[in-house]
Amino acid sequence: MSRLIVVSNRVAKSDGTSKGSEGGLAVGVMAAMEKDGGIWFGWSGKVDNKGEAPKRETRGNIEYITVNLKQSEYNQYYKGYANSVLWPLFHQRPELMQYSDADLSGYLQANRKFADELLNVIQPGDTIWIHDYHLIPLGKMLRDAGIRNAIGFFLHTPFPSLDLLRTVPGYQKILKALLHYDLVGFQTIADHMGFCMGVSQGLGGEILKNDRLRLGDRHCTARVYPISVETSALAGVAQAGENTQEYKRLYSSLNDRKLIIGVDRLDYSKGLVQRFQAYDRLLGHYEEFIRQVVYLQISPTSRGDVQAYGNLAKRIDREAGHIIGTYADFDWMPLRYLNRGFRRRTVLAMYRLANVGLVTPLKDGMNLVAKEYVAAQNPENPGVLVLSEMAGAADELDAAVIVNPYDVGAITGGLAKALNMPLDERIDRWRKMMDVLEQHDIHSWQSQFLEDLNFVTAPKLATAVN
Ligand code: F6P
To answer: InterPro entries, from UniProt (predicted)?
Structure first.
């Protein structure tokens, strides 16, 4: 029987206790897998040096197979090359890269460990779908070990232009590794173009018809598949979340004030410094909002032991302290800044309550918070999405109030516009965005990718059988 094996570094918590700090990949893949099931292979989230066998656990129709990382693997692969080189590079922050040969070799070793474990799992006919920047070399390693199955790869983050990619030593290997997949999926046209230009200009490869690329005897197909959300379900989950104690406490604490909400991992790509500065400016320049508005920023700590994240946390603390010290009163707190996550239905209910969803990353692959905020709204009284033009989601959700996330004044203007927007304009903008999300939800994202993977590999697999 043909099975789907999804492989990613981060695996959604299998016990349903997720507090929403796992990022877009876990949320998106979970929603996609819940429907048809399959095997989900990845890191357990635990670090230990014992070298235990992978843990297997079935929940619903998903079998989770997870491995622990050794301390050295965690340091060199996760903290090191993945999150101190590839993450800043792919998010246009090369000045934050901390490259070392040792981290690169730890990254390759951890990929090899994933490959070795997967060899015990993969059966002929399985479809293998690998996700994200942590596991770029994994496809080639599986091929080298003799795996002939269909192997697809999806990148959840942006992909850089060739100029930027060139800033990392050995960048050609990243491009070459991706060419070993049958199908490579990107979030946006710009990411796809970055890859195609990298292959043609950086490696001297050819761009052929039907999104095919060739380098020597290697062929691969590369296309755009913007990830989405479970559109039809989210409003219902948000309504269910209105029964939670946390929601009720938030609601009553507002005292009819307007709510602005931001939900982001505490990451320098999310534009939180500029966002806080824009809110500071809003309160400084528009007296009408004093005591009338509350900004709730939910930012669970993420990768806190990577230096750039520690520095960011301190900087955000200062910005938050400044806003509270300047504007708060004994009976009004303009900013509520929380370094913790909440259960999913509670967050969705908070989205539904918020008059403004503030999503202003400096660079983001897609940003599913933006899409979830829209899908959670009450159709008769929807809130307004203020969205960065640097998020992949802006390509589709152009009926949002679009802002440049580096332009603090523009974010302030966007916030004021959103807070004052009349109901008919709010409905009109929301409807346009919902049309997009209804046409392209998480299930169509998954089926489109897997159908294409099946299609591009069919001739090759037929030859292998014959
Ligand atoms: O949006 C997807 C993503 O950025 C993943 O690439 C990443 O796994 C996740 O969010 C959160 O990061 P981490 O796994 O380091 O906690």
So the answer is: Glyco_trans_20
